[in-house]
Amino acid sequence: FWFGMGPGGRAVFALPGNPVSTLIGAYRYLLPYLELLLGAPPAVRERAFLAEEYRFEPSLTLFLPVRLEQSGDGRLLAHPRPVHGSGDFARLTASDGFLELPEAQSLFPSGSAWPLYRWAPDPRGGQGAASPSGLAGGRREVD
């Protein structure tokens, strides 16, 4: 993935060639940028709690596909559904979206909450519902 400004101040997004990386890059970076250009108001990013501990050793930001479940106490639980490489597009069908896990750590404890990007709007509405512009299935984080 690459982002830069071209001649005349035009934004340039270079998405990777593998399908999983392309889709995640589009949801994480391209769609929020397009919403910003359309004048959509900033929104708070929905968060989900990891349902189980997850380890990831490389010092990279991880976009972890997850299956979502509502717990009995009302928390949104995220069950990891990792893919087997960035070409494993079919495996994403077992996920509802992905969590963004920071590169600064390698152990992500059960019960910890992380930013969630849904593939589709939350059918219940409310937090995590479709973005104001309807482009992305989640809400953009405000820095």
Task: Tell me what you see in this structure.
This protein has one helix at residues 19-37; strands at residues 2-5, 11-14, 47-50, 54-55, 62-70, 76-80, 97-101, 107-108, 113-118. The longest helix has 19 residues, at 19-37. With 143 residues, the protein is α+β, with helices and mostly antiparallel strands. The chain is built from one helix and nine strands; from the N terminus they run ββαβββββββ. Helices cover 13% and strands 29% of the residues. Strands 3-6-5-7-9 form a five-stranded mixed barrel. A two-stranded antiparallel sheet has the order 1-2.
Q: SSE order, as H and E?
A: EEHEEEEEEE
- Tell me the β content: 25-35%
- How many helical stretches? 1
> Would you tell me the structural class of the helices and strands?
alpha+beta
Query: How are strands sequenced across the largest beta sheet?
Result: 3-6-5-7-9
Largest sheet: 5 strands, mixed, barrel
